[in-house]
Amino acid sequence: MVSSGIIINQLSEKGSKNIMASDHIERKLALLPDRPGCYQMKNLNSQIIYVGKAKNLKNRVRSYFKSSHDGKTARLVSEIADFDYIVTSSDKEAFLLEITLIQKYQPYFNIKLKKGTGYPYIKITNERDPQMKIVSSIRKDGGFYFGPYPNVYAAEETLHFLEKVYPLRRCNGFQGRPCLYYHMGQCLGACFKEVPEEDYKEQIVKIKSFLNGNVSSVKKSLQQKMMQSAEKLDFERAAEIRDQINYIEITVEKQKIISNDRTPRDLFNFYFDKGWLSIQIFFIRQSRLIKREKKLFPVVNDAEEELTSFVLQFYNNKNKILPNEVLIPKGFDNTVISEILGVPVRTPQRGEKRDLMDLARENAQITLEEKFRLMELDDSKTVGAMKEVTNALGIPTGHRIEAFDHSHIQGADLVSAMVVFTDGKPDKKMYRKYKLNTVDHADEAASTREVIRRRYTRLLKEHSSLPDLVLMDGGEIQLNAARDVLVNELGLTIPVAGMVKNDKHKTSDLLFGEQDMRVQLDPKSQGFYLIQRIQDEVHRFAITFHRQLHAKHSLSSSLDSINGVGPKTRTKLLKKFGSISKIGNATVKEITSLGISEKVAKTVKVSVAAQLKENSD
């Protein structure tokens, strides 16, 4: 790997920033080709912090170092120490490679979409006796999928309505007798007879018609049935049908029809200001706008490139189903995006879809302006606090802090825990718990060495990004142990500091540097409050984990002392009840339902009751 260069001469904190490239980067800039491709910007730790694509690599990459920047772009350039690039044969290949690299390395400065479960769908299964169900992912299994729905409640209400009006199968299949749903008119009777396939096909055609927006015929049919039930004095049935009609009116018909055809479409538009990109996505289904989604990102490149990257990532999520058409504003390479997605990508020029495009832009602007107002209030407590800490330690501006703490009771049940703060905010999905394997007594240094070794060996093996600062909740012993493992064993140069508490067990100072010097922060500063929050959070997380583990071991030990309770029985009781008190409150029948003999169950009840009485005394 080529040695990292250094970026110097950052002139202004608030206004435009001019960056001069190191000699190393200057030499690499001169070798850039006039070809399309992807580039990867790296920091001093050789971590990829940004991935971009370019029609002309030479012009694009040089622009970072030869022009003035502000906002997120200036922050990016200030952290670039080196870069690499990959040449592609076309702009389309560059798009595809960019998305692949972003998802692989998750660079800090790129727009990154989480791979969540997405929105729920209604599915008609591909079976001899099909049924309707709610699912969160799309599979190529021959089933019919409808949606997505704005939320689970909307999907459930629609499903319940369809089960009442157009039933398929609701039971588990043939069981020799009619199920309850059959008696309620919500199952065609696969539970006790062979239902003709034509009956299912007829129902599925009606279900598809309804879900595609054709509700008027359904409503008319229901109104006729309601009148017939009322004439027969079956007022209970009439009231039930009335509620079904009411559901159509409040959940389906209330959505404004925005087109004359029923083509499923997704519409994207944006508003860009002060380095921030606000994106609005409108989901058009059944000729109606059924859902709006908004996203906000600080961005590095121009808005058009960032939005293109967003759209391609958006549909790369395995649970996002492609519509029949995607609408985007003018100024984009619709042909390339269409080729990658495999569906038509168009820009509306007039009519209702053009009006909807303008509405999406207006909403994007309102959302971003609201964000700016909130950022003014929040920035000093998060990003600003992080910068105060790195400035006090004299290290480069960073984004991610990982903090560690240990917990035990007289050397028993030793555990460690790690919390992560990104730009001054807790990132709880990154928290980690550790049961210590190589330490069997209270040894702060040994505990630190094990957890640091395990954490960062794993990150290196997985080629994951490293933190900008490691904090240890303790003094010189933990600090020096962590530093020794990182530097001498793993060859890493991650800054490490110790969080010191005063005689009142409150956050006081930081220990940092080879001489373990005390670094004092203003007790009224946001930086000090950040360290205080981190120290309290890692201590809470470690203590909570230790208590959970200790309680589990205590329960296990209590059960081990009972005659007739072996490892299998103990596991069953632990899994089912989880605590001594819950076992004590359980009946013998509940215990025997786990496959435990009545004799052992009674013994467990008597023994646990005795233990609980002894503990209460």
Automatic annotation (TrEMBL):
Database matches in SMART domains: GIYc
Compartments, record wording: Cytoplasm
GIY-YIG domain mapped to chain residues: 34-111
GO molecular function annotations of the record: DNA binding; excinuclease ABC activity
Pfam families with a match to the protein in the record: GIY-YIG, HHH_5, UVR, UvrC_RNaseH, UvrC_RNaseH_dom
GO biological process, any: SOS response
Quaternary data: Interacts with UvrB in an incision complex.
Protein purpose: The UvrABC repair system catalyzes the recognition and processing of DNA lesions. UvrC both incises the 5' and 3' sides of the lesion. The N-terminal half is responsible for the 3' incision and the C-terminal half is responsible for the 5' incision.
InterPro entries documented for this protein: GIY-YIG_endonuc, GIY-YIG_endonuc_sf, GIY-YIG_UvrC_Cho, RuvA_2-like, UVR_dom, UVR_dom_sf, UvrABC_protein_C, UvrC
Sequence similarity: Belongs to the UvrC family.
Signal sequence region: none
UniProt domain UVR: residue ranges: 216-251
CDD domains on file: GIY-YIG_UvrC_Cho
Domain UvrC family homology region profile: 267-486
Protein name per UniProt: UvrABC system protein C
Listed GO CC annotations: cytoplasm; excinuclease repair complex
Keywords: Cytoplasm, DNA damage, DNA excision, DNA repair, Excision nuclease, SOS response
